[in-house]
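Entry type: protein chain
Record version: 2
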Amino acid sequence: MDDIYQFELLSLTSTVAKEILNNAGINDKTLAEFIISLHEQSKTQDAFKKKLKEVGADFPESFVENLDRLILSLHPKYKRKKAKKAKKDGVETADESDTKRRMFPGLALPDQPWQPSNEFGKDKDKDGEKDAASKEVDDLMSQLEGVAKKKAARPTAADFIEPEPPSKRPRRDMEIDSPPRAGPSRGRDRDREDRGRDRDYEDRGRRSRPTLDEKPVLYKIYDGTVQGIKDFGAFIQLEGVQGRVQGMVHVSMMAPGGGRVNSAQDLLSRNQRVKVKVMSVGSRISLSMKDVDQRTGQDLTPHLRIKSEAELAQEALTGSNSAPLGERGMGGLTGIVYDDSTPVRSAKRLTSPERWEIKQLIASGAVDASEYPNLDEDFNNPHAKAEVEEELDVEVREDEPSFLAGQTKMTLNLSPVKIVKAPDGSLNRAALSGVSLAKERRELRQQEVNEQADSEARDFSTPWLDPMSQNDDKVFAQDTRGNIMGQKAGEVPQWRAETFNKATTFGKITSLSITEQRQSLPIFKLRDKLVQAVRDHQILIVVGDTGSGKTTQMTQYLAEEGFADHGKIGCTQPRRVAAMSVAKRVAEEVGCRLGQEVGYTIRFEDCTSPETKIKYMTDGMLQRECLVDPNMLAYSVLILDEAHERTIATDVLFGLLKKTAKARPDLKIIVTSATLNAEKFSEYFFKCPIFTIPGRTYPVEILYTKEPESDYLDASLITIMQIHLSEPPGDILLFLTGQEEIDTACQILYERMKALGPQVPELLILPVYSALPSEMQSKIFDPAPPGARKVVIATNIAETSITIDGIYYVVDPGFVKQNAYDPRLGMDSLVVTPISQAQANQRAGRAGRTGPGKCYRLYTEVAFRNEMLPSPIPDIQRQNLSHTILMLKAMGINDLINFGFMDPPPAQTLLTALEQLYALSALDDEGLLTRLGRKMADFPM
């Protein structure tokens, strides 16, 4: 280990020496080792800067920060500390937080006070208006000063007016102004003086009048006035050119040095005077402000100068400016002159498919043939000019944002989040093989449908050859084949038709009244204790199994006890369907119309009113309400239901409500979970108490396979048939990954059971996934007929979200489909991955709700212990966080390192999200939200 340590230290020394050479021009490894030793003696970045100043190292501050970040990321000492911390998986200390802040300063910007969206940026506008007003005043004063200086040298308007003859002047003026009469010689001298003075005035006036250019001259600098402003640029009216001539300055040509400008309105205002340089002339005039000093008018790009007549003539001779060649052009030297008397078409040559389409249009009468006189000649004409495709030169901007300097993916070795504990283990290999087998099954099904469509095809050539046939008989073979395939795709599979042929019912069928149903729930016995616990504590963790009544009963108990008198009782759900169905059920129990005392809010649908006291909503909607009201003044109690699912919105709400709880001591927060990992929630929420609702649980026998299964779908179906044929009565629950897999399993299982004959007991096949209609989902709650058994094939929704009575057998292949984000590619992908140990235990518990049951795990016990993570990875650590960070920035939260996530997301994902937001102009160069970013946060983007 010491040798590896020394090698890593040598690599770090070499890297630091390179950085010093690039920035300071000193090539000395001893100096690099000295700087590394100074860093080891410094606990903070400020201490490191201080030590460097003490020894006389006058480095720029940005370079010192870059060195600090480099040593922190590459020094083996800090790497080992990080590895030890990962093994302990404990709470992050202050030193570790400071180290992260030094490595990623772009993630530790100071927070800002929250502002509502309608007031966002008003302070900036006021400052900008003041600056613009003061600038206009300064410009006006400078112009007046210039006028005062030039007044003595500049002639007035009277100087250009011819003097009136003495005969036409009033006598009064003559009497006052005229001197005494003189002799004839004196008169002639005065006439000569007057003529000389007039010539001087004419010359001086001619010199003072600016000459106007007929058209804008390339690379000449003009004064101009801003006439119009758009986001992409500004339109400038040029002075010194005949007529009214306007050009455009693009935003990329405004800021000196090529700085980033989000909008032209940030720099310019209407009627503002500017100095511009003409960069291109033609049909559109392109102007530049960054090439001209706006104060002095100095040309900042003198290499782009106005060309003389001799230079233009030389270019015309050489043809270097794409000008027509002169005498030395074609034929000037060889004597061979091209005969251009034949008409040359400058239009684009038509392609063969375009020519065919035009001929079809002419034949149908839709287009006149006279519009295309040379339709065929155009193709055969050797002199027709083929259109040359213009070459596009795409320049990729690789500039890093200033607040992310040295932290983006160009300088960091980004890697995707590890969502599988053992990538080479048997479970992950089975998941990969399952994906390829599913693809093969899909292709086989498609091939069978194609063959069946081909077999039903008939001879289509006869109606086209028969002159007496009707138009309806003339059909194309491809159209008929497509219709047959469409009919096959629309047909209901036989297994589905037999399963859902009876009258559909909604929900569980029961003879109990609503009051008796409420009293039969496990939570009813603990009503008083629960209410008292909520009164005594501001934050409470409630743990109870699915079906105990947490979601529907707690809100009613608290409303009955008066908690809704001073604010609403809000309850979040991770799924839209759950929020709607629970609100409907609670409204029935309360005895009101949905939307009055009890309502719900989901995206694009708000079913509430001013009288609403109990409000169910998705966690994303509550997060958006935090954007408008960070202190949650409209609520007295907030319940975060199904918190164990750890969606992104739920994790963000954890951090936001933690802050809100300190600001509002009267706000009650309840976090409910169906799993036993409640200690983590309690530790996070200031070690708050845990209230446990005991559920109806029975012992479950767990059975493992002896060897890994290569095809888990086939093994699942074989296990189901063995249970059905050899085990005592009891329903079966099978967990699969998605809709396509579930439909395939139902079809194969139905065909296999049908092949066994009528002697085998009936097996009802019931799928459950989110895309299934509600009436079909409700069939899973119906008890199986006498002598029959039902098998429910479901996604992971059946782990905690729904409780099905009568389940005694659970078949667990051990896989789930998850959404994973790769920051290197910047893309999300749905991948089949092994489940965690907590999910496996939760699935096994489904078999012990009604009585003692069995769980068949289609993987080995070694794989359960070594290849499964203890708990599932939260969504916030494996998904794209661009929208989440945009919401946090809109709330004024810029310090993402110290925000207080329960499980902090990887720094790579955060940096990639910040880079994407900067590229979309949602963030400025300082990492703060722009106006566009604030508008983006207001919309669900």
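Comment: The domain at 720-876 is CATH 3.40.50.300 (Rossmann fold).
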